[in-house]
Specification:
This protein is α+β, with helices and mostly antiparallel strands. Helices cover about 30% and strands about 45% of the residues. The protein has three helices and six strands, in the order ααββαββββ. Strands 2-1-6-5-4-3 form a six-stranded mixed sheet. β3 and β4 form a beta hairpin. The radius of gyration is 13 Å and the shape is globular. The two termini are about 25 Å apart. InterPro entries: NTF2-like_dom_sf. This is Nuclear transport factor 2 family protein. It comes from Enterocloster hominis (ex Hitch et al. 2024).
């Protein structure tokens, strides 16, 4: 399973610990897709920040975020629809950089 397939799997399961483990110790997750749902851009730096944020996000969301119509463009790009409360947002996720151990150094998520 590619790192992006693992990322989608963790988001669909609501597993913040496994999600955070995909990231390098200093890995960055930048998600501006939430803007389309009236929320502030998420910019997280570090594995611990990813775990803490998604622990709260999954909790406040009542579980994992619904993700559907996933299309893997290549090993570094995936398109999907994610539901933030009542807003369905089409997004693209770009895996910009991984480290020598295959951990995410930077993942950018943008609305389509």
């Amino acid at each position: 399973m590619t790192i992006l397939e693992q990322y989608i799997d963790c988001m669909q399961k609501g597993d913040e610990t496994a999600l955070a483990d995909l990231f390098n110790e200093y890995g960055v997750l930048h998600d501006s897709s939430v803007y389309k749902a009236g929320m502030d851009t998420i910019h997280l730096e570090g594995r611990m920040a990813v775990e803490m944020m998604f622990h709260h996000k999954f909790g406040f969301n009542g579980g994992p975020f619904p993700i559907h119509s996933v299309k893997y463009v290549d090993d570094n790009t995936v398109w999907y629809f994610i539901t933030y409360h009542e807003h369905v947002v089409p997004v693209t996720a770009f895996l910009s950089e991984v480290d020598e151990k295959g951990k995410i150094k930077r993942l950018n998520i943008y609305p389509l």
